[in-house]
Specification:
alpha/beta; binds 1,4-dihydronicotinamide adenine dinucleotide; globular; ten-stranded mixed beta sheet; 355 residues; 11 helices; 22% strand; Isopropylmalate Dehydrogenase; binds magnesium ion; 2 domains
């Protein structure tokens, strides 16, 4: 038996995705190498540049080429020259949907030494994790647009909620809640206004919660939950949310954790029938792209989540501890966290802090 090897399909994508991805992979490679594990990245040039050259966001056989990888690492997708509904719908959503990555796991923590916009909140008070439903809901792509260009033009975008889809994300969230000390689960609902989809959501939450008597499940309307994440973040542990609600709540969670640049995400196929995909939650940040100042910590942390998924919980912990050391030390930080360091400086500091 040789040492473990993992084939990683890498899509750096656009803007700062191209800047943070190599830094994150360098950290993943450094920590793996020390443990005798080989990471074999296979990089794909897909994204908005590829679209300008070929009229496609990915190669025609992209999904087949990704299928055999042990995991997919994505930087960010999006460029001002390509409409976002094209770039997102032709690259990110097909991967999430085809590979049944129905769990979108997003930790939100105020790291030691980082001052969030909530003054005087200690790091221990912001430690949330969101399980976002990642395959249906408002991003199912069902709907249409008629009478284009006329005064009667109409668009319908339908939310798709299935018992099976809700049940599997809520069960996954209950498992995550059970694995954490506080065992608290907040369900983001809006059943007062969305009387079909969110009432089904609530019903299924009740049914699944009954199987987890050791987990305390509370329902919050999504707007109230958003406010609570700011006013009482300490009361939030694990969140389960629909696709749209989870998308919004996790940008908020990242913001109260100091910066969008710090937050990671994992798109998981828990049954492991298909590869899972790991990415920072931020986009391509055209406003700072090309300047080498993007914060790579979200991407590095996403790399840690990938190592965990590949069976290396110890390496995940080592990378997260290294991130904590660099942030707590405070000398090497990108401008979004008030520092002057570059993307590469932060990457080197995290590698140095691995030991
Ligand atoms: P964004 O996340 O790219 O940027 C929002 C703000 O946060 C900007 O001011 C940006 O400079 C800052 N920021 C983001 N990441 C940062 C980092 N690592 N370090 C320092 N500052 C950082 O979101 P925006 O502007 O809404 O979208 C830009 C493009 O990215 C669009 O084309 C959008 O569709 C795409 N996008 C792609 C995503 C993905 O690939 N998963 C997710 C979100 C947006
Ligand atoms: Mg988002």
């Amino acid at each position: 038996m040789g040492q473990p090897r993992h084939r990683i399909a890498v899509i750096p994508g656009d803007g700062i995705g191209q800047e943070v991805t190599p830094v994150a992979l360098a950290v993943v490679d450094a920590v793996a190498r020390r443990a005798g594990i080989t990471i074999e990245p296979v990089t794909h040039p897909w994204g908005c540049d590829y679209y300008r050259d070929t009229g496609r966001m990915m190669a025609a056989d992209a999904l087949d080429r990704l299928r055999d990888s042990d995991a997919i690492f994505l930087g960010a997708i999006g460029h001002p020259s390509v409409p976002d509904h094209v770039s997102v719908w032709e690259l990110i959503l097909p991967i999430r949907q085809r590979f049944e990555q129905y769990v979108n796991l997003r930790p939100m923590r105020l790291m030691p030494g980082v001052s969030g916009p909530l003054a005087n909140v200690p790091a221990a008070d912001i430690d949330m994790i969101c399980l976002r439903e990642n395959s249906e809901g408002e991003y199912a792509g069902v709907g249409g647009r008629v009478h284009r260009g006329t005064p009667d033009e109409t668009a319908v975008q339908t939310g798709v909620f299935t018992r099976r889809g809700i049940e599997r994300i809520v069960r996954y969230a209950c498992e995550v809640a059970r694995s954490r000390p506080r065992r608290l689960l907040a369900s983001a609902t809006k059943s007062n206004a969305l009387q079909h989809s969110m009432v089904l959501w609530d019903d299924v939450v009740d049914e699944v919660a009954a199987e987890y008597p050791d987990v305390t499940v509370r329902k919050y309307h999504v707007d109230a939950l958003a406010a609570r994440m700011v006013t009482h973040p300490r009361t939030i542990d694990v969140i389960v949310a629909s696709n749209l609600f989870g998308d919004i709540l996790t940008d908020l969670g990242a913001a109260v954790s100091g910066s969008l640049g710090v937050a990671p995400g994992a798109n998981l196929n828990p049954e492991r029938r298909h590869p899972s995909m790991f990415e920072p939650i931020h986009g391509s940040a055209p406003d700072i792209a090309g300047r080498g100042i993007a914060n790579p910590i979200g991407a590095i942390w996403a790399g840690a989540l990938m190592l965990d998924h590949l069976g290396h919980r110890d390496l995940h912990d080592r990378v997260v501890t290294a991130i904590e050391r660099v942030l707590a030390d405070g000398r090497v930080r990108t401008p979004d966290l008030g520092g002057q360091a570059t993307t590469a400086d932060v990457g080197r500091a995290v590698v140095d802090a691995l030991s």
